Amino acid sequence: MGQTGSEHERDSIIGLSKDEATERLVAVDDAHDPATVRAVLDHVTEDDVVTRAGVDDAVTDTSMILSTAETRVELASIALSDARETAGDAAAIDAVRSRLETFESKVSTAADRIDELGSTVQTLSRWHAESRPVFDVVTGLRHAASEAQTLAARADDIQLNIEEFEHWISNHGVRVREFEADIDALEHALSDLEGSVETVTTDSDTADEADDSDDPTETDTNATAWFDATLRSHVLALLVADVRAELADLRELAARADADADDLETGAARLDELDSRLERLDTRLDEHACPAWTDEYGERIASFRDRLDAFEPPVSWGAVQSELEQYQPERDG
Hints:
Elements: H1 7-13, H2 18-28, H3 34-41, E1 45-46, E2 49-50, H4 52-87, H5 94-124, H6 127-130, H7 134-170, H8 172-210, H9 216-256, H10 265-287, H11 291-309, H12 317-327
Antiparallel strand pairs: 1-2
Helix pairs in contact: 2-3, 4-5, 4-7, 5-7, 7-8, 8-9, 8-10, 9-10, 9-11, 9-12, 11-12
């Protein structure tokens, strides 16, 4: 049975060669993988010997990596403050407020994790006084360094997104282009859904004409396809409503900036057309719904609609997609 590290283990590997230390650690705990142990000890060896100085250097290196991550998070926080100042009174508008709140959450989460890692590294740095096993110390330092590097990259991304937001809030043309891109995404999703509805309704009509009630395979396939299409239709209805709410906010931003909002009206007309297409799809889905399908899936559809009703604009499209994936039927392959 494997054992946990001990003071004996710590003292026993200091001064050993990497191979000897690896053998000792594997003997102490048979859960250790020799290749992993060697890779960890690479960070604390000098001339292929495990040394106290090597462990102390690992502490210093990790502290420097953590300091870099902390700086990146601070820069993201400064960028957020600048963005709030740029937004000014417009921060009360939902489309602006939600973006700022998202950035605030991300920066706060990163800062909290930096603090936690700082406490961890501080604790590990006292390995001499607290007789911590060398392997455990180095493993903890490597994990902390890896997460700090991830946080630094994430903070860079957050800062970039905040800077893009500042460009968005300051430029009506940028806002219009992003609005139109959202409509493009909705139109693409709706076209895919129309193809799915066409398939399920055509197959349903063919099955009715053939009266092939002895073979349930095709009927079962049509049922799951109809259920999936129904779920996606409800999602698209929510997202169209979300973009329509965004349109109202963009009009308000344009008015505050004395910008010509006429270029938003093309998008408004496209949203109207999306609503009409969705309504026609819903009608087709209702018309082709067999009683057996509604009996089987009715409660799940109602539950899904209740979950969607909890969303209010501005909507997180990623969160809605996650809800959809939880309800969608499993796909082959």
